[in-house]
Amino acid sequence: MSQQPAHVGPQGPTRLIVLAGPTAVGKGTVAAAVRERHPDVWISVSATTRRPRPGEVDGVHYHFVSDDEFDRLVAEEQLLEWATVHQVARYGTPRGPVEESLAAGRPSMLEIDLQGARQVRKTMPEAVFVFLKPPSWDELVRRLVGRGTETAEERDRRLATARDELAAEAEFDVTIVNHEVHAAADDLVALMRPA
């Protein structure tokens, strides 16, 4: 991996990590492990127009917003990136909290989809872009089916999307294979620390 410039804040250099990968690879689970094991790391909370899944809390897992509110955020350029995902719901990263965290010198991470990562690369090319990859295609399918949160039609659509997303690995600076959640989380955090 080539060294990327670090953001410099009051606590010294930090890096913005942009984590993306195919659907059901475990991005949210790895982000939760980072949050649990490394409380000093700030993780962006995305806005979305999709309905909450069981157990999800507004403002913790996502900011659940209406279509009208999302339109307002886009119109006022308050999102660092946004996209329509799986041809259904829109997701976006609120700009202000990211800029505030980086200015404060906190190790920071965005957990976003592939479309969003491409947009952030244009506006924040100094970030380190990390592709989270499943150990195998069969494991990805097993994880998606095992979640039990999607209908058969939604699963098929997500798997079709995942095939396309896996092909984008070469666009990223670093690949981490998600064999084990805590190891993947620790690998991510290590990328935020100065060498």
Write the layout of secondary structure elements.
Layout (H helix, E strand, L loop, with lengths): L6 E3 L2 E3 L1 E5 L6 H11 L4 E2 L3 E2 L14 E2 L2 H9 L3 E7 L3 E6 H9 L4 E4 L2 H10 L4 E6 L3 H11 L4 H15 L7 E4 L3 H12 L3
Parallel strand pairs: 3-9, 3-10, 4-9, 5-6, 10-11
Antiparallel strand pairs: 1-2, 5-8, 7-8
Summarize the structure.
By secondary structure, the chain is an alpha/beta fold. Helix content is 39%, strand content 23%.
Give start-end ranges of low-pLDDT stretches: 1-13
Largest sheet: 5 strands, parallel
Broad structural category:
alpha/beta
The ordered H/E elements are EEEHEEEHEEHEHEHHEH
Mean model confidence by pLDDT? 86
What's the β-strand tally? Answer: 11
What CATH architecture label of the domain at 7-44 and 100-192 applies?
3-Layer(aba) Sandwich
Rg from Cα: 16 Å
Number of helices: 7
CA-CA gap between termini: 12 Å
Describe the strand arrangement of the main beta sheet, using strand numbers.
4-9-3-10-11
**What does the overall shape look like?**
globular
Per DSSP, what share of the residues sits in E-state strands of 2 or more residues? Answer: 15-25%
CATH level 1 class label of the domain at 7-44 and 100-192? Alpha Beta
CATH topology name of the domain at 7-44 and 100-192, in short, is Rossmann fold
CATH H-level superfamily title of the domain at 7-44 and 100-192: P-loop containing nucleotide triphosphate hydrolases
Proportion in helices: 25-40%
